[in-house]
Amino acid sequence: MKSFNKAFTAALLGVVALLGVQTTAVQAAEEGWLVDFEEAKKLSKETGKPILMEFTGSDWCPPCKALHKEVLSQDVFKTEVPKSYILLKLDNPRDKSHQTDAEKKQYPVLAKKYGVRGVPTVMLVDDEGKPFHQQVGFGGDKAEKWVADIVAKSEIRAKRDSALEKAAAASGVEKAKLLDEAINLIDEKLAVATYGDVVAQIIELDEENEAGLKAKYVGLQNNVKFEEEMQGVMQASRGAAPEETAGKLGELVAKYKPSGEPLQMALYYQGFFTMRAGDKEKAKVLMEKAVAAAPDSRNSLQIKQIISQQFKD
Could you give the domains of the chain? Predict the structure, then answer.
């Protein structure tokens, strides 16, 4: 009898453990959310509704928790948003014990594909996974406003599709302009990362840069490659001499000739490591150039404050 009880207990614990692993998927389903990307695309194709993907860190990210509490768990969201979108939750919690292996493997693949660098990120995509809107973070909007805004964003897909349809009937530079109109509706980095085929067409169609589109998209491609390589340099900086890191950043700037905020951050970090290497005068010049590279960016004010604090005469 004792051996039977032990076997029964072991089997029961096994069932409990299995149920625990499925908790995330079951809870998400009960709340109207899917957790499998392929399933969401299939349902999107069947219903004609695009997909609302939420990249989140449910058990550690404060703005993710706020978004869930203030918006996603509210009745207005549960009632209105599923009318317009298929809901897909892509969670990257610290405690992954309640996730399936498929969920654990899926998150980093999709996060890399869509260039997700912060959570929460809400992204709207069609049934092929092509994005047409993304928003990062949560600004504290009331549920009613947040829901109204996200529902209205479905119009972007219609505008994109209209431009693509017109482009299909056009040729040459005119076609390039219409393709640009279509993907210009979304974030530039996201467009380069996920509409590579369209970007390649634009560059080829505007080979002589008649419409300025070849230069635009080659520049955007360079910015994306530059940021990827800069990230590698920054990761390697922990074990490197500061002057070495500053030199590598300078080489990247010379190689890719980035502009705007990517250039701003490169110059700022180059100045930071130059200051750590002991050349304060050169560091100040680099940080001042960083401000000038994107004077209206969010980072400009912070860099100005650093300059005023660190380089007092």
Answer: 2-152 (3.40.30.10), 157-211 (no CATH), 222-310 (1.25.40)
